[in-house]
Amino acid sequence: MKRITRSSVHLAAALALAGAATSSFAAPGWCESGKTVKLAQITWESGALMTEMVRTVLEKGYGCKTEVVPGATAATETALSSNDLQVWAEHWTGRSPIVARALKDGNVKLVGELIPGGDKEGWYVPDYVINGDPKRGIKPLAPQLRSVSQLGQYKALFADDEEPGKGRFYNCPAGWDCERFNNQLLKAYKLGDDYTNFRPGTGGALDAAIASAYERGKPILFYYWQPAGLMAKYHFVQLQGAPYSDACWNTITDPKGTPCASAFKVSHLKIAVSTPFYDSEPGAVAFFEKVSLPLSLDEQLVQQMHDKKLDASTVAHSFFEQHPEIWKQWVTPDVAARVQAGLRS
């Protein structure tokens, strides 16, 4: 057995004291030091709502100062990668090469699972286009329509008033990731000569076009996603496409490539966090890891925003008041108490 000398005991004690002193003077966390947590402004409704939910808990539960920062998608992702932003509250995985690089370089972390099972997305038509709607006196307009591959036969049904001889496909607004993917899918399905690739100016304009057509019982062909309030409010049918393929999906995400058709890759909805914030705020990260909403509730909340013209902050406040059984599972009891007290003040 190795002999333990008095000097070695003294050395061990000194090291222990030094370690204790070092830990006692550890750098304060992001919020404790007074730094503002900058969150990306998300323009789609579910993302705007999740941003306000996260912001509420950070402010009232953890004492953080927060700011929501607007910006285009690519610029915002770049800002997150360089820690000019700290939180993107609803990041859809597998969409962004900028975030993929940031993950590889260790500059960004993805945390949690906001909607169990991930998203749903695709190309849709109103249910009455295929099945009719006897209550509204609408007969089936295309009872045999089932798949995207048939759309060339139905361009007259989805006619574009501004381009005679073509149908109109309602894409996402220009600059959104889904807009790029749909551009490639139109090529892959060889529909470019038959359909106008129509890009509304905003997400709200896309919603308005779909809602207007639905309320009037008119045919419309469009891309959409879930979670989304519009999908909860109306009845749509998703058209069948090619099966999912990793190889083909890679051609869809690369705008320079020659695409082959694929179903959309399932995205998981997570909270994207800059690594410096992740490292300095373990309590907030533990909260991020637990944030989760059932898809049906998420869509109900988003539908309230849409139907009642409520902003995300108002609906988030109502959620915290009406669903403590859900959000209290995200945080420790002391944080939950502070959130409740903050909501009452």
Explained architecture:
This protein has helices spanning 6-24, 45-62, 73-81, 97-105, 127-131, 177-188, 203-216, 229-233, 246-253, 275-280, 282-290, 295-308, 312-322, 324-327, 333-344, and strands at residues 36-40, 65-69, 87-92, 108-111, 120-126, 167-170, 195-198, 221-226, 236-238, 269-274. It starts with 5 loop residues before the first helix and ends with a helix. The chain is globular and about 65 Å long. The protein has 15 helices and 10 strands. The strands form 3 sheets. A 5-stranded mixed β-sheet has the order 7-6-8-5-9, with helices on both faces. It has a 3-stranded antiparallel β-sheet with strand order 3-10-4, with helices on both faces. A two-stranded parallel ribbon has the order 1-2. The chain folds into 2 domains: 36-118 and 267-344, Periplasmic binding protein-like II (D-Maltodextrin-Binding Protein, domain 2); 120-253, 3-Layer(aba) Sandwich (D-Maltodextrin-Binding Protein, domain 2). It is of the alpha/beta class and 345 residues long.
The count of strands amounts to 10
Q: What is the CATH topology of the largest domain?
A: D-Maltodextrin-Binding Protein, domain 2
- Look at the structure and give the CATH class of the largest domain: Alpha Beta
State the CATH superfamily name of the largest domain: Periplasmic binding protein-like II
What CATH architecture of the largest domain would you give? 3-Layer(aba) Sandwich
* Uncertain residue segments: 1-24
What's the SSE pattern?
HEHEHEHEEHEHEHEHEHEHHHHHH
Distance between the ends? 65 Å
- Spatial ordering of strands, largest sheet: 7-6-8-5-9
- Helix count from the secondary structure assignment: 15
Query: How would a textbook summarize the main sheet?
Result: 5 strands, mixed
General shape: globular
Helix/strand structural class: alpha/beta
